[in-house]
Amino acid sequence: MITHHVRVHRSDEPLPRERQLAWRIAEVAAERVEPTPDVVDMVVNRVIDNAAVATASLGRAPVLAARAQAEAHAPSSGGDGATVFGSPHRTSPEWAAWANGVAVRELDYHDTFLAAEYSHPGDNIPPLVAVAQHVGASGAELVRGIVTGYEIQVDLAKAISLHAHKIDHVAHLGPSAAAGLGTLLGLDAGTIAQAVAQALHTTTATRQSRKGEISTWKAYAPAFAGKAAIEAVDRAMRGQTSPSPVYEGEDGVIAWLLDGPSGAYDVALPARGEPRTAILDTYTKEHSAEYQAQAWIDLARRLGRERPELRDPANVERIVLHTSHHTHHVIGSGAGDPQKYDPGASRETLDHSIPYIVAVALQDGAWHHVASYEPSRAARPDTVALWRKVTTAEDPEWTRRYHASDPAEKAFGGRAEIVLTSGETVTAEIAVADAHPLGARPFARADYVRKFRTLADGVLADAEVERFLDVASRLPDLRPDELAGLTVTPLVDPAASVPATRGIF
C-alpha cells in the first residue's frame, strides 16, 4: 500500500491533478489487476448475500416504491437495460441500481466494514450489476469492478471519518461506486477521476437520516449514491468535468465538511500491481440489525439460555453495556434519542437501538428479521420493562479495540454488567459476532447459501432458489447474456396486491 497525505490547499497553492486524491483513486481503478481466488470467492459470497436480503425485503413499502419509480423508466438507448429484483421489467441502469440498492439496504442485513468510518460495502454491488447488465459486460469484468468498489470504500473508511462531522457514510460510497464502474468499463484514469470527484460532490449529506426517528430514507441513501455514481460516470465519459480539487480545495469537502482548513488525512491505497484484497477485511451479518448489535445479539441469546431468570424484568435492577464510543453514541443511550426507548418507534429506529435489541434477544434467545421487530413484540409489557433498564457506557478499552488496526484486536462488542434485584451481578463479554471471521462460527459459502435459502423461504420457488445460486456461483465465468440471471422472481409479485400510488413518474 502507498500512503497519500491529503490536506487542504489554498486557491493560490495549486495542486496538480495527479496529486489529488480523486486522481489517486482513479489510478487504482484504471489499472487492470486480476483478483486473487479468495477475493473472487468472497465476491460471489457477497452477491449471494445481497440477493438474500433483497429477496426478504421485496414486499416492503420502500422497496415497492423504489421499484415503481424504476419501472417508470424504460431502458435507455445505450444498452439493454438492467433487471430489478422482483420485477418482470428491465429498466434504465441508474434506476435499476436505485431500486435494487433500496432492496439490498432495507433490512440492514448485508455486509459491513467499521474503521474510522463505517460502511456497507455491498452497496457497491447494485450499481455495478445494473451497468454490467446494461452494457453487456462479462462476469469477469463485473467481478473486477466489484473488487475495486470494495477496495476504495474500505480504504476511505479506514482513513477518513465522516460521522465525526455528522456527514453520512454514503459520501464514501459515491466515489467507490464510481471507481468500480470505471474498472468495469475499462475507463482511463482521467475519466474516472472526474467521475469520482462528481460522485463525491453530489453524495455528501448530513447524518440526520440516521438520527432520532429514523425514516425510510435510510434505505434510499446508498441507492441514491449508487444512482448518482452511474450518472457521474456517464457525464465524465461525455467529457464533462467536475469540482477540482474536490477533497483538497479551499472550499472543498475537507475544508468545509470535515476537519476544516487545517485538516489532513493519510489515505493508503494499493500500489501498482498490488492485489486488491480489501473485501476480505469486511464481514456480513447473521442478524438483521446494525452491525454493532451483532455481537450483543449473540451474547444476549447465550445469556438468556444459560440464565433464564435474566429474562424477567422483576429479577433485574439494571443492565449496563460497557462498549465503544461508536456503539454508545450511535445505537446506545449515549445518542440521547428518546426514540430508542419508544415501543412505538419505527423498525428503522429499533434496529439502531441496542437497548431494545439486547432486551428482545435476551428474552427470546433468538433474532428474526421480521418477528423481532413486530409492533406487538416491541410493545410487550415485560419487554418494555426490561428494555428501559438497559443503558450503555463508553469504555476506553473497547473504543481502542474498535479502532485497532490489528485484526486480532479489533472488536465490536463489549462487557455486559447485569445487576440483579437479589444483589448478584452477572458479567459477560464478547469481542466479535459469532459470524465474524474471528468469531465462534465464521461465515463461509455454506452459511451465505443457507442465509439465502432461509430468507427466500416462502418468497421464491425452490427452482428459482436453485437457479439463482447456480448463476451466482458461476459469476466469474458468466457470459454477458447470462448476467441477467442475477435477479430473482418471486412466487407471488408483492406489487400485485398493493394499491399503486402515483408520483410524478
Provide the CATH top-level class of the largest domain: Mainly Alpha
Major sheet: 4 strands, mixed
Q: Residue-averaged pLDDT, rounded?
A: 95
CATH fold-level topology of the largest domain: 2-methylcitrate dehydratase PrpD
CATH architecture of the largest domain: Orthogonal Bundle
List SSEs in N-to-C order: EHHHHEEHHHHHHEHEHHHHHEHEEHH
GO molecular function: 2-methylcitrate dehydratase activity
Keywords: Lyase
Family: Belongs to the PrpD family.
Domain MmgE/PrpD N-terminal: 19-261
Q: Which labels suit this protein?
A:
505 residues, 2-methylcitrate dehydratase PrpD, 60s Ribosomal Protein L30, Chain: A, two-stranded antiparallel sheet
Mind explaining what this structure looks like?
Belongs to the PrpD family. Keywords: Lyase. This is 2-methylcitrate dehydratase. GO terms for molecular function: 2-methylcitrate dehydratase activity. With about 500 residues, this protein is α+β, with helices and mostly antiparallel strands. It has two domains: about 1-280, 2-methylcitrate dehydratase PrpD (Orthogonal Bundle); about 290-430, 2-methylcitrate dehydratase PrpD (60s Ribosomal Protein L30, Chain: A, 2-Layer Sandwich). About 45% of the residues lie in helices and about 10% in strands. It has helices at about 20-30, 35-55, 60-70, 95-105, 125-135, 140-160, 175-185, 190-200, 215-235, 255, 295-305, 325-330, 345-350, 355-365, 375-380, 380-385, 395-400, 445-455, 460-475; strands at about 1-5, 115, 120, 265-270, 315-325, 390-395, 415-420, 425-430. A four-stranded mixed beta sheet has the order 6-5-7-8. A two-stranded antiparallel sheet has the order 1-4. Helix 3 runs antiparallel to helix 4 and helix 11 (about 295-305) runs parallel beside helix 14 (about 355-365). It is globular. The model has no long low-confidence stretch (mean pLDDT about 95).
